[in-house]
Automatic annotation (TrEMBL):
Subunit structure, interactors included: Part of the 50S ribosomal subunit.
Function: One of the primary rRNA binding proteins, this protein initially binds near the 5'-end of the 23S rRNA. It is important during the early stages of 50S assembly. It makes multiple contacts with different domains of the 23S rRNA in the assembled 50S subunit and ribosome. Forms part of the polypeptide exit tunnel.
Keyword match DNA-binding: no
Keywords: Ribonucleoprotein, Ribosomal protein, RNA-binding, rRNA-binding
Gene (UniProt): rplD
Organism, scientific name: Hoylesella buccalis ATCC 35310
GO molecular function, one term: rRNA binding
UniProt-listed Gene3D superfamilies: 3.40.1370.10
Stated family: Belongs to the universal ribosomal protein uL4 family.
Residues covered by region (Disordered): 45-77
This protein's GO CC annotations: ribonucleoprotein complex; ribosome
GO BP, one annotated term: translation
Annotated protein name in UniProt: Large ribosomal subunit protein uL4
Protein backbone atom coordinates (compact mmCIF):
# COMPACT_ATOMS: atom_id res chain seq x y z
CA UNK A 1 0.00 0.00 0.00
CA UNK A 2 1.51 3.30 -1.13
CA UNK A 3 0.81 6.57 0.66
CA UNK A 4 1.83 10.07 -0.43
CA UNK A 5 4.16 11.99 1.86
CA UNK A 6 2.89 15.44 2.83
CA UNK A 7 4.71 18.40 4.31
CA UNK A 8 3.42 20.36 7.31
CA UNK A 9 1.60 22.70 4.92
CA UNK A 10 -0.53 19.80 3.71
CA UNK A 11 1.09 19.77 0.26
CA UNK A 12 2.36 16.64 -1.46
CA UNK A 13 6.13 16.38 -1.57
CA UNK A 14 6.12 14.15 -4.65
CA UNK A 15 7.42 11.21 -2.63
CA UNK A 16 5.54 8.08 -1.69
CA UNK A 17 6.19 5.47 0.97
CA UNK A 18 5.12 1.84 0.91
CA UNK A 19 3.50 0.63 4.11
CA UNK A 20 4.85 -2.74 5.21
CA UNK A 21 2.23 -5.40 4.45
CA UNK A 22 3.37 -7.44 7.45
CA UNK A 23 2.34 -4.55 9.72
CA UNK A 24 -0.33 -2.56 7.91
CA UNK A 25 -1.83 -5.28 5.72
CA UNK A 26 -2.59 -8.28 7.93
CA UNK A 27 -5.98 -9.73 8.81
CA UNK A 28 -6.73 -8.08 12.18
CA UNK A 29 -7.24 -10.37 15.16
CA UNK A 30 -10.06 -8.94 17.29
CA UNK A 31 -9.41 -11.18 20.29
CA UNK A 32 -5.80 -10.08 20.80
CA UNK A 33 -6.96 -6.46 20.37
CA UNK A 34 -9.40 -7.03 23.23
CA UNK A 35 -6.72 -8.58 25.42
CA UNK A 36 -4.17 -5.83 24.83
CA UNK A 37 -6.68 -3.01 25.42
CA UNK A 38 -7.93 -4.78 28.54
CA UNK A 39 -4.38 -5.04 29.87
CA UNK A 40 -3.65 -1.37 29.10
CA UNK A 41 -6.77 -0.20 30.94
CA UNK A 42 -6.12 -2.60 33.84
CA UNK A 43 -2.61 -1.14 34.21
CA UNK A 44 -4.11 2.34 34.60
CA UNK A 45 -6.14 1.31 37.65
CA UNK A 46 -4.83 2.37 41.05
CA UNK A 47 -6.43 -0.56 42.82
CA UNK A 48 -6.87 1.41 46.05
CA UNK A 49 -10.64 0.89 46.55
CA UNK A 50 -11.34 -0.26 50.09
CA UNK A 51 -14.43 -0.72 52.25
CA UNK A 52 -14.62 -1.86 55.87
CA UNK A 53 -15.84 -5.25 56.96
CA UNK A 54 -17.59 -5.65 60.31
CA UNK A 55 -14.43 -6.57 62.17
CA UNK A 56 -12.88 -3.25 61.12
CA UNK A 57 -15.73 -1.00 62.31
CA UNK A 58 -15.85 0.52 65.77
CA UNK A 59 -19.14 0.05 67.59
CA UNK A 60 -20.77 -1.86 70.40
CA UNK A 61 -20.87 -5.62 70.10
CA UNK A 62 -24.13 -5.82 72.09
CA UNK A 63 -26.82 -7.87 70.35
CA UNK A 64 -29.59 -5.41 69.49
CA UNK A 65 -32.58 -7.69 69.30
CA UNK A 66 -33.86 -11.18 69.98
CA UNK A 67 -32.52 -14.06 67.91
CA UNK A 68 -36.04 -15.14 66.95
CA UNK A 69 -39.50 -13.64 66.92
CA UNK A 70 -38.62 -10.18 65.67
CA UNK A 71 -40.17 -10.77 62.27
CA UNK A 72 -36.97 -9.88 60.40
CA UNK A 73 -33.55 -11.25 59.66
CA UNK A 74 -31.27 -12.30 62.50
CA UNK A 75 -28.73 -9.64 63.35
CA UNK A 76 -26.15 -9.15 66.01
CA UNK A 77 -24.30 -5.92 66.79
CA UNK A 78 -24.69 -2.46 65.30
CA UNK A 79 -21.95 -3.20 62.73
CA UNK A 80 -24.15 -5.74 60.99
CA UNK A 81 -24.26 -5.34 57.17
CA UNK A 82 -28.07 -5.48 57.45
CA UNK A 83 -28.17 -2.10 59.17
CA UNK A 84 -27.66 1.39 57.78
CA UNK A 85 -24.11 2.44 58.60
CA UNK A 86 -23.06 -1.15 59.05
CA UNK A 87 -20.19 -2.95 57.39
CA UNK A 88 -20.08 -4.22 53.83
CA UNK A 89 -20.01 -7.90 52.99
CA UNK A 90 -17.16 -8.96 50.66
CA UNK A 91 -16.29 -5.36 49.84
CA UNK A 92 -13.35 -4.29 47.65
CA UNK A 93 -9.82 -4.51 48.98
CA UNK A 94 -6.61 -2.97 47.59
CA UNK A 95 -5.30 -5.16 44.79
CA UNK A 96 -3.09 -5.12 41.71
CA UNK A 97 -5.13 -5.39 38.50
CA UNK A 98 -2.14 -5.92 36.21
CA UNK A 99 -1.79 -9.18 34.30
CA UNK A 100 0.73 -10.65 31.89
CA UNK A 101 0.49 -10.85 28.10
CA UNK A 102 3.01 -12.59 25.89
CA UNK A 103 5.16 -10.35 23.68
CA UNK A 104 3.92 -12.06 20.51
CA UNK A 105 0.31 -11.35 21.50
CA UNK A 106 1.04 -7.66 22.09
CA UNK A 107 2.97 -7.49 18.82
CA UNK A 108 0.06 -9.01 16.89
CA UNK A 109 -2.37 -6.64 18.62
CA UNK A 110 -0.41 -3.55 17.53
CA UNK A 111 -0.13 -4.82 13.97
CA UNK A 112 -3.87 -5.57 13.94
CA UNK A 113 -4.67 -2.05 15.16
CA UNK A 114 -2.42 -0.47 12.51
CA UNK A 115 -3.97 -2.68 9.83
CA UNK A 116 -7.44 -1.48 10.80
CA UNK A 117 -6.29 2.13 10.42
CA UNK A 118 -4.79 1.33 7.01
CA UNK A 119 -8.07 -0.30 5.89
CA UNK A 120 -9.94 2.84 6.98
CA UNK A 121 -7.47 5.11 5.11
CA UNK A 122 -6.91 6.82 8.45
CA UNK A 123 -3.12 7.12 8.16
CA UNK A 124 -1.43 10.36 7.10
CA UNK A 125 2.31 10.30 6.36
CA UNK A 126 4.11 13.59 6.93
CA UNK A 127 7.76 14.45 6.46
CA UNK A 128 9.82 14.86 9.61
CA UNK A 129 9.48 18.25 11.24
CA UNK A 130 10.18 20.11 14.44
CA UNK A 131 9.01 23.32 16.08
CA UNK A 132 11.35 26.12 17.14
CA UNK A 133 9.37 26.74 20.33
CA UNK A 134 6.34 25.32 22.15
CA UNK A 135 3.37 27.03 20.52
CA UNK A 136 -0.13 25.56 20.41
CA UNK A 137 -1.13 27.85 17.54
CA UNK A 138 1.58 26.36 15.30
CA UNK A 139 0.40 22.82 16.07
CA UNK A 140 -3.22 23.80 15.33
CA UNK A 141 -2.15 25.22 11.96
CA UNK A 142 -0.37 21.97 11.09
CA UNK A 143 -3.52 20.01 12.00
CA UNK A 144 -5.59 22.30 9.76
CA UNK A 145 -3.17 21.88 6.86
CA UNK A 146 -3.24 18.10 7.21
CA UNK A 147 -7.06 18.17 7.46
CA UNK A 148 -7.14 16.39 10.79
CA UNK A 149 -8.50 19.29 12.83
CA UNK A 150 -11.62 18.34 14.80
CA UNK A 151 -10.64 14.66 14.76
CA UNK A 152 -8.96 12.62 17.45
CA UNK A 153 -5.43 12.54 16.10
CA UNK A 154 -2.32 10.68 17.21
CA UNK A 155 1.00 12.09 16.05
CA UNK A 156 3.76 9.46 15.99
CA UNK A 157 7.32 10.79 16.21
CA UNK A 158 10.57 8.81 15.77
CA UNK A 159 11.94 10.22 19.04
CA UNK A 160 10.84 12.53 21.84
CA UNK A 161 10.42 16.17 20.83
CA UNK A 162 9.65 18.45 23.76
CA UNK A 163 8.47 21.42 21.68
CA UNK A 164 5.99 19.35 19.67
CA UNK A 165 4.72 17.59 22.80
CA UNK A 166 4.19 20.85 24.71
CA UNK A 167 2.49 22.44 21.69
CA UNK A 168 -0.13 19.67 21.61
CA UNK A 169 -0.55 19.20 25.35
CA UNK A 170 -3.46 21.63 25.75
CA UNK A 171 -5.42 20.21 22.80
CA UNK A 172 -8.05 17.74 23.95
CA UNK A 173 -8.25 15.82 20.67
CA UNK A 174 -4.53 15.69 19.91
CA UNK A 175 -2.01 13.23 21.31
CA UNK A 176 1.72 12.84 20.66
CA UNK A 177 3.87 9.80 21.31
CA UNK A 178 7.04 8.17 20.03
CA UNK A 179 7.00 5.16 17.74
CA UNK A 180 8.79 3.04 20.34
CA UNK A 181 5.98 3.58 22.89
CA UNK A 182 3.11 3.07 20.44
CA UNK A 183 0.37 0.90 21.94
CA UNK A 184 -2.85 -0.71 20.75
CA UNK A 185 -5.21 1.41 22.87
CA UNK A 186 -3.83 4.73 21.61
CA UNK A 187 -4.00 3.59 17.98
CA UNK A 188 -7.60 2.38 18.24
CA UNK A 189 -8.68 5.42 20.25
CA UNK A 190 -7.51 7.83 17.52
CA UNK A 191 -9.61 8.71 14.48
CA UNK A 192 -6.51 9.33 12.38
CA UNK A 193 -2.80 8.54 12.72
CA UNK A 194 -0.29 11.17 11.63
CA UNK A 195 3.01 9.33 11.19
CA UNK A 196 6.34 10.92 10.30
CA UNK A 197 8.58 9.21 7.71
CA UNK A 198 11.28 8.13 10.14
CA UNK A 199 8.66 6.79 12.54
CA UNK A 200 7.75 4.15 9.95
CA UNK A 201 11.31 2.83 10.08
CA UNK A 202 11.18 2.63 13.89
CA UNK A 203 7.81 0.82 13.76
CA UNK A 204 9.23 -1.65 11.21
CA UNK A 205 12.25 -2.39 13.41
CA UNK A 206 10.10 -2.96 16.51
CA UNK A 207 7.23 -5.00 15.08
CA UNK A 208 9.16 -7.05 12.50
CA UNK A 209 11.95 -9.06 14.06
Amino acid sequence: MEVSVLNINGQETGRKVTLNEAIFGIEPNDHVLYLDVKQYLANQRQGTAKSKERSELSGSTRKLGRQKGGGGARRGDINSPLLVGGARVFGPKPRDYRFKLNKKVKNLARRSALSYKAQENAIVIVEDFTLDAPKTKDFVNIAKNLKVEGKKSLLVLPEANKNVYLSARNLQQADVMTASTLNTYKVLNADVLVVTENSLKVIDNILIK
